[in-house]
Amino acid sequence: MLPWSRALRPAGLLRSAGPPRAGAARRARCGPGGRGAALSAGPDLRHFLRGAAAGQLPPEREPEPQPQPGSAPGPGKVYLETYGCQMNVNDTEIAWAILQKSGYVRTRDLTEADVVLLVTCSVREKAEQTIWNRLRHLKVLKARRQPARPPLRIGILGCMAERLKEEILHREKLVDIVAGPDAYRDLPRLLAVAESGQQAANVLLSLDETYADILPVQTSAGGTTAFVSIMRGCDNMCSYCIVPFTRGRERSRPVASILQEVRMLSDQGVKEVTLLGQNVNSFRDTSEVQFQSAAAPGLSRGFSTVYKAKPGGLRFAHLLDQVSRIDPEMRIRFTSPHPKDFPDEASVLQLIQERHNICKQLHLPAQSGSTRVLETMRRGYTREAYLELVQHVRESIPGVSLSSDFIAGFCGETEEDHQQTVSLLREVRYNVGFLFAYSMRQKTRAYHRLQDDVPADVKKRRLEELITVFREEAARAHRAMVGQAQLVLVEGPSKRSASELCGRNDGNIKVIFPDTETEDAAGCRAPVRAQPGDYVLVKVTAASSQTLRGALLCRTSLSRAAAAH
């Protein structure tokens, strides 16, 4: 599962009329449940709570910007903010692609906006509280709106919209539209209704919507990395997880549309793509008739599932193979796989080992080190089966970087269960970790069947212990890289020093190095300076649990570095 985020019809509420549409998918990663820390060294960090995108409230008397003379008439300017997981980043891009076609103009200045849309997460209580706090700020902005301008329309999109539609619409009557993850095609209609002064909502979940026919508009122009959603929803029904109730049943996007998007990103100069889904290695494209008779994959000893395996369709190994062939200079990652779907997917591990542009990095979400707790969570594996998988992965992909998710203080967790999780962290020694205290979510199996009986102070203490152990072991793993040359994709200037650059290595660990002139491995005689999107070799000189530091050796290419390895 990716680490992260209906109701009655009130009087006067306009609801979507019309059946759910077929379509496509984009990004995901939704996580466990609770407050905690994302201890990450990779794009997986984006999978956790993002702050508001720019835009401060204007001073009381500051004049609001007026339309420019000669500007084209249209529905107005839209301001988008993204919170939560990587899937929400992609949902933002889908929503913007739909609105752009309807004539809306994008603004990054909150004071210019006619429409403010918040793409939300509902996986943890803290994520939802962030949105409520943001809405209080927007209420002030709405009240200060100049009478000569159209009323400011505010919308809540995504998982929180799906979970709390009624409360969102009724609380202080601030929100004008509510749209769930499968209702983005309806945004132009919902906004038109809101323009007439009514509230509008569509939170219908679809069994087939993947937004396959909509190419997302990248919200970070000129970026070196991008996320491509390959599926939506989840069928695993882990007892703690809200995702099946906010994003619906699992459905996969057609391979052809995914390849089209990746080719487009390659043409735009993107150098790293992450394939996203709640459970990517259960990907199953049934859009092509000739593949519908394929047998369902089996599970290895120690793994089980709550649903019957579905036959037919093109599987994840086929997709990964095809995506990796598009551009030899584009790195490919994927997240989040489920451990139960790896054992018989040996071809996936083989592809990672063989293809120089598929990163030697895997996210293996454990959630707990206790077999008893794993059973209560309905994870479908034991501690022993998980450790056998880790061993198999490391034998298949030498030097692989591993990341994981953990929940502290799940229902019924004893001190002995907690210590088993501590020992798992020490035994596996992950490079990247996402650790959170459990927060119960309504609608989940845990909410209906279990007791949230671990006191908050105990959850906090256990979480702090897990974080400490993770950092100790990650630091040891990273110190083993000191003296080695790492291939790094340059992302841009370091946030802490204008004289340094930062990027990520193949294992998704952040690498910091001086922004100095260097030679080019292609034989260019003149010294060069590394730019975002360049591959460089960096000799590691120091390491911590979060980052590597090193000296810049040269600029190179993905293919050239692989050939020299």
UniProtKB/TrEMBL annotation:
Family: Belongs to the methylthiotransferase family. MiaB subfamily.
MTTase N-terminal domain: residues covered: 76-196
GO biological process: regulation of protein metabolic process
Any single GO CC term annotated in Swiss-Prot or TrEMBL for this entry: cytosol
Pfam families xref list: Radical_SAM, TRAM, UPF0004
Start and end residues of each stretch annotated as Disordered: 1-42, 56-77
Source superkingdom: Eukaryota
Name of the featured protein: Mitochondrial tRNA methylthiotransferase CDK5RAP1
Entry's Gene Ontology molecular function annotations: 4 iron, 4 sulfur cluster binding; metal ion binding; tRNA-2-methylthio-N(6)-dimethylallyladenosine(37) synthase activity
Catalytic activity: N(6)-dimethylallyladenosine(37) in tRNA + (sulfur carrier)-SH + AH2 + 2 S-adenosyl-L-methionine = 2-methylsulfanyl-N(6)-dimethylallyladenosine(37) in tRNA + (sulfur carrier)-H + 5'-deoxyadenosine + L-methionine + A + S-adenosyl-L-homocysteine + 2 H(+)
The EC number(s) this enzyme carries: 2.8.4.3
SMART domains: Elp3
InterPro entries reported for this sequence: Elp3/MiaA/NifB-like_rSAM, Methylthiotransferase, Methylthiotransferase_CS, Methylthiotransferase_N, Methylthiotransferase_N_sf, MiaB_methiolase, rSAM, rSAM_horseshoe
Residue ranges constituting the Radical SAM core domain according to the UniProt record: 220-476
